[in-house]
What does this fold into?
Amino acid sequence: MKKETLVVIGNGMVGQNFLEALLVRDTAQRYDIIVFGEESRPAYDRVHLSEFFTGKSAADLALATPDFFIRSGITLYAGNRVTFIDRQNKLIHSEHNDVIGYDKLVIATGSYPFVPPVPGHDRERCYVYRTIDDLISIAESGRNARIGAVIGGGLLGLEAANALRNLGLQTHVVEFAPRLMAIQIDDSGGAMLRRKIEVLGVHVHTSKNTTAITDGNGCYHKLTFADGEDLETDLIVFSAGIRPRDDLARECKLEVGQRGGIVINNQCQTSDPTVYAIGECALWNNQIFGLVAPGYRMAETAADHLTGREAAFMVADMSTKLKLLGVDVGSIGDAHGKTPGARACSYFDETNEVYKKIVVSADGKRLLGSVLIGDTSDYGSLLQYYLNGMVVPEHPDTLILPQRDAPVGLGVDTLPASAQICSCNNVSKANLLAALDGGAHTLVDLKRCTKASTTCGGCTVLVGQILNKELEKRGITVNRDLCEHFPYTRQDLYLLVRTERIKTFSDLIARHGRGLGCDICKPAVASILASCWNEYVLREQHAPLQDTNDHFLANMQKDGTYSIVPRVPGGEITPEKLIVLGQVAIKFGLYTKITGAQRVDLFGARVDQLPLIWRELVAAGFESGHAYAKALRTVKSCVGSTWCRYGVQDSVAMAIRLENRYKGLRAPHKLKMAVSGCTRECAEAQSKDVGVIATDKGWNLYVCGNGGMKPRHADLFAADLDDATLIRYIDRFFMFYIRTADRLQRTASWMDNLEGGLDYLKQVIIEDRLGICAELEQELAAVVGSYACEWQQTLNDPARLRQFRHFVNSSRKDNNVLFVSERDQVRPATAEEKRRLVRTA
Amino acid sequence: MQVLEAVNVNLVTGAWVKVGAVEDIVDGVGVCALIGGQQVAVFRLPGGGQYYAIDNHDPFSEANVLSRGLVGNIKGQPVVASPIYKQHFNLQTGQCLEDESVRLETFAVRVKEGIVQIESK
Ligand code: SRM
Ligand SMILES: Cc1cc2nc3c(=O)[nH]c(=O)nc-3n(C[C@H](O)[C@H](O)[C@H](O)COP(=O)(O)OP(=O)(O)OC[C@H]3O[C@@H](n4cnc5c(N)ncnc54)[C@H](O)[C@@H]3O)c2cc1C
Ligand code: SF4
Ligand code: FES
It folds into this structure.
């Protein structure tokens, strides 16, 4: 059978979702698929577009893997806009003069930001907020701007305002209506939101009708308002709503709505049955949907229909949960209580700035809608009541009143199997259960199998609750025991050690474990003991627990020799000290190399040489660099404001200060940090567990970055901190990680598995939601206060020094350690070279 | 039988060679002894006082390092884990737990008058 050609116009979020939905369904490979995308890059996650400003790259935001198109045999013409649809001849024409015939056509052109036709709207330095390219332009323009204004105080406008603020601009929001987010929330909610946003330093101007944009006096632009007032700004972002991109459809005479949008039926077909329209460009039942979830439903419907399946698009839920400028906002269903007979009930807490409202049906049985500001912890359960038409409790106000004793929320058990849990990806409880049956027993697996909670993240907590409940019900205890000697997780053991003030492994295993221990639990417990009590790691009771690296305070290499990495805080080193390193290397015949973390590694030391080498290093003022330990490694720095023409803070001084504070801190895995002197980020701070980047007001703190096998960009955790707050947050962050991470879990995967994610972490560390911050700070202070250089301690301990020899009964050396010379330095001989060397000896 | 002090000579099979005094060995921390030119890793398990001796050569990394591995027990067997690639070896039998085809040489150990001794092969 000859294949039919299916052309898709637009490779945005919905267009891409359609391709994936079709591939799954088109098992008979009925279609050859050709996609045209106007943007230069393949589809990316527009919902998380703003994260482009907080460290995500275009690649991070990509929706498909780089080889998606090659693997699936789909042809993508990127950066190639379709200019005309010739329905008579079933051809499309593109801006690069491609002409392609189609059998079936799918229009997924999305929408464009509406720019009000105010005189001056087309001046330079006026932007919209829709694509990565838009954001790149805004960021460039922001570099030499002081003030920025967003026209439009809706959902997207506030998101754009946050971006301007992150760029360090004084930010204004100009809204035509009397309140912010007029569509989603009510007057009281809008007023609360406004107060919260103003506290953050964003200037809000409501009931402002912009009538002209002209040259400013102090700034590039001047906005003039109908009420005669004006506002000066260096750049403008328009965010005054979206309009469907239906121009192609109009020109080829497809039916469009009065106020725009390509008219579609329940199967997502336009007035021409061979042409489909999906996503934000489509008009269904006289409605346009500006969210991904309905678009994804349309994509699935069209894919079903194109592969001969029954399907009908149904009205999709438009509820939203967001964090706008750090303020939690939720809106469900009929937020304004417009349904006849609807009754509202609200909770207003001025102390904590929380506003919650629910709208229930006339009979008081069903939840019709809700508005949540300042606290959206009830969102998940309210949404479930709403979506599944569940009967609300006798006193519905209990749904939003603070539950000070019992945990809030509905039991996930009471949800029917049909309950839609993730509305973005249409994942029901039944889908989750099926995946669980299929063996997905972790949040990460469940996300991978079902795609639940991979889009807006609003359902993550609920998905986690269902997972735990179901595992419990099925009697599946995910065995998280550390090893056969301890029926506990690392976190459990940490708490046992802390609360029972246990100081030794033998005490811990006697009280809570069995057997002799092994190479898993011994180092893990040694690390816990060190994090808690920070005793010398080679004390008699602790020494047998240490891996060879910690045991000899050096890194074992492939031939049994060791490498030595003295600490060089911040990477700053005097010429005198550099010379000492060279002299020591020459004297002991060591191979030298600059490491990837701004220090020097000396390789090829025999175990008996380690104390001799360190005697010289300590005498010259060096300390252990802990390259051998699961502990703080280095704090990398750039040269910063002292020398660099762009630097805005002294990044070297801060790096040294941080390295000296946290050196010796042992953790579930190694810890790396860096400090950059400005946003150019020469110290690569965003790839570290803790990264600090200077701003002209202080420091931006990033957390949970990672290099390694699966690199992860760090997340922006807090902005413009002063020195003291920066250090306080890092103290808390480290101690909370040490308390809660798994064995050998870097901060990056810890974060990826943390229920509640970054927001939760902020609540714990910034807002002190668990009330543990003082304790965390004390715990860290105890470690800082008890720091001692392990090499210095070792050199002063004759019993310890006796351990540094190869043979207990001979002073001979290991005859298997043989070096040859390469590029003027030594290296271990290969097996073949060893045979030759031994023969000639 | 004569106890030899010399450690790097050709020994007759069955000679008992001195490793060191009991105090030279710490519970759970291995030492390496030179027994007639051969490197032997010697351990005393924590608590029990039981001694084991096994070839010090790690066949996976080709380095002489097993005395520097962590000891413990796994499924009832006393083991040492190689410090390089972490394979486990049964201290009693020398059998590698991860690779059936690998078995290391083991040695008899005894304590006489406070001296730990190994029988040469
Ligand atoms: C020496 C050095 C390479 C070099 O010549 O530059 C090095 C060498 C080793 N790295 Fe590394 N890493 C070195 C910088 C890095 C960096 C770059 C950095 O720190 O800026 C990274 C990526 C950043 C990161 O960690 O996120 C790095 C990511 C790793 C990883 C992957 C970690 C991960 O989370 O996936 C491992 C494996 C592990 O730890 O499990 C590793 C493990 C190792 C080990 C310990 C492997 C081993 O078990 O033998 C190497 C032995 C160190 C030694 O001294 O004998 N090394 N390693 C660097 C020492 C830096 C220092 O001064 O302390
Ligand atoms: C900053 C921001 C935050 C958002 N946050 C949320 C949120 O939290 N939750 C939510 O549900 N939604 C959110 N949205 C909305 C969401 O991104 C959209 O609903 C979704 O992207 C719609 O997908 P689409 O494919 O219909 O349109 P788009 O993603 O816009 O894709 C359309 C694509 O078609 C291309 N195109 C247009 N015309 C042509 C042509 N003639 N030829 C070739 N290509 C063409 C366009 O360039 C574009 O790449 C947000 C949007 C933005 C901008
Ligand atoms: S990060 Fe900034 S301050 Fe530091 S070296 Fe680079 S450009 Fe200079
Ligand atoms: S509801 Fe948006 S990701 Fe699940």
Observations:
- Residues 405-409 of chain A have pLDDT under 50 and may be disordered.
- Chain A touches chain B through 34 residues (CB under 8 Å).
- The two ends of chain A are 76 Å apart (CA to CA).
- Residues 723-740 of chain A form the longest helix (18 residues).
